[in-house]
Amino acid sequence: MSNTSPTLPTILNKSVAACSRFFKIETLQLKFSNGEEREFERMKSSTQGAVLVVPFYDDETILLIREYAAGTHSYELGFPKGLIDPGETPIQAANRELKEEVGFGAKDFTELRKVVMAPSYFSSEMTLFMAKDLYPERLIGDEPEPLEVIKWPISKVDELLNRDDFQEARCISALLWVMKNYR
């Protein structure tokens, strides 16, 4: 494996193809170092990124939420997550999302890793956290219905990974990082 980074393509032109509340689709005209030119589309996030939190209720128990996922039109098990609001740090956003979605804040946050989803066409970055030393505190969130909070024994992680309703890649990634850093 080479230690040198490849030369990034030159952006010849950039235009906006479409916009929504959360995303802007850009069309890029690119020229690669070998002279090839191509058109790519990418989704640029209109936010400062997102956070996902794996909360530990106690040393042996994590908290999950069950919430509606519009993309798959299903209810999914996962971890509290959301966008970073303007002026917030990732840890502040993680604590706010925890309070909104599970009714707890945390005194101890460990940043596990930053991840991206589909980097070939999506620019959004998510910071994964592990949260411990929880305390009860609820904030009103933007969820359209109350979220079910589920206590899950960390000893049954394999069972969780095999569930059909626990399939979101960022949640699986966060859980694997937690297991790598557990104890």
What would you note in describing this structure?
This protein starts with 9 loop residues before the first strand and ends with a helix. It is α+β, with helices and mostly antiparallel strands. The protein contains 3 helices and 10 strands, in the order βββββββαβββαα.
Share in β-strands: over 45%
Question: In one word, what is the shape?
Answer: globular
Secondary-structure element order, N to C = EEEEEEEHEEEHH
Structural class: alpha+beta
Distance between the termini: 33 Å
What is this entry, summarized?
The protein is α+β, with helices and mostly antiparallel strands. It has helices spanning 90-102, 157-161, 169-181, and strands at 10-19, 23-31, 37-45, 50-58, 61-69, 74-78, 81-83, 104-116, 125-136, 148-153. Helices cover 17% and strands 46% of the residues.
Question: Notable features of this structure?
Answer:
3-stranded antiparallel sheet; 7-stranded mixed sheet; alpha+beta; 10 strands; 183 residues; globular; single chain
List the helices and strands and how they pair.
Layout: E1 10-19, E2 23-31, E3 37-45, E4 50-58, E5 61-69, E6 74-78, E7 81-83, H1 90-102, E8 104-116, E9 125-136, E10 148-153, H2 157-161, H3 169-181
Parallel strand pairs: 4-9
Antiparallel strand pairs: 1-2, 2-3, 4-5, 4-7, 5-6, 5-10, 8-9
